[in-house]
Amino acid sequence: MQTTPAQLAEEWREFFGTAAGASATLVGLVIVAISVNVQRILEQPQLPSRGGATVAALVLILISSMAELIPQSGRALAIEIFVFGLLVWLLQLWSARRIIVAYWKSRRRLRESVIGITIGQIQAIPFIIGGISLFFRLRAGPYWIAGV
Rg of the chain's alpha carbons, rounded to an integer? Predict the structure, then answer.
């Protein structure tokens, strides 16, 4: 079922406003946690990229939520969310590569590496799908974005 951008904006305004506030708070908390533990993080080769990818995923939620609140065409919103999602996904892939390299060098448990990679992919891919859905004016778009 197709819907207009104005309908989507009105139906989801309160949700995305709340998501923007919550994600901004979480970004700040994660950055403080990283800065407090920077020495320990730097000791593990996979953790700096993992920390960066985590902050990027939270910033993706923040930017997407704020973009939903800006009056604009549905196609522009769709392209913004798709591009931001793609950028974070590429950062997650880079982090996954670092996790794999760390696994081979330090013989970390495979389960730990697989979980880290899977969580990274799960964070970004719904935004890409949501951006595509919004571009084609499918009602599923916001649900993909909100389901993260």
Answer: 17
Neighbouring CB atoms inside 10 A of 20's CB total 19
Average pLDDT of the chain is 89
Dihedrals phi, psi of 147, to nearest 5 degrees: -75, 0
- From the list 76, 77, 83, the residue with the least C-alpha distance to 65 is 77
Both tokens of residue 70? Answer: 């800006």
Residue 2: band (very low, low, confident or very high) from pLDDT cuts 50, 70, 90 = low
* In the predicted structure, residue 17 carries a pLDDT above the cut 80: yes
Per-residue pLDDT, averaged over 105-132, amounts to 87
| Exposed / middle / buried, residue 119 (Cβ in 10 Å: 0-12, 13-18, 19+) | middle
Q: Which domain holds residue 10?
A: 5-146
Q: What is the pTM of this model?
A: 0.86
Q: Cα(first)–Cα(last) distance of the chain, in Å?
A: 22
Beta bridge partners of 138: 2
